[in-house]
Amino acid sequence: MARFEEGRSISCPPLFVREAYSQWSNVMKYFILAQDFELWDIIEEGYIEAPKKKKKQRSENDTKAKLNSRAMHILLCGLNEEVSKKVSTCKRAKEMWEKLERLYGKEEKKDGIF
């Protein structure tokens, strides 16, 4: 009889693996997309807070700020303590994602993994 390993949880983000950054980042991307497409948009495109002059602009800023916070929270939940310290000063999810890419994406290429 075949024995199957336990699969990943659909409610917990994938845990960061330094040696397999490319795989982790790909799985994390789809995990975030499964949570909410707009979360991934915030990571890819980022957001800049617009001046809070009108009620509609405040509401849009609040929505984007919430999406940014959710995206950052998901990313941080997938990182170990060592790595989360390196990105904890980031103010935007996009900045955090790009910093992870700079730190670990290049490391894989340097080590000849890709």
Automatic annotation (TrEMBL):
Q: Name one Pfam family in it.
A: Retrotran_gag_2
Give the protein's recorded name: DUF4219 domain-containing protein
- Say which domain of life the source belongs to: Eukaryota
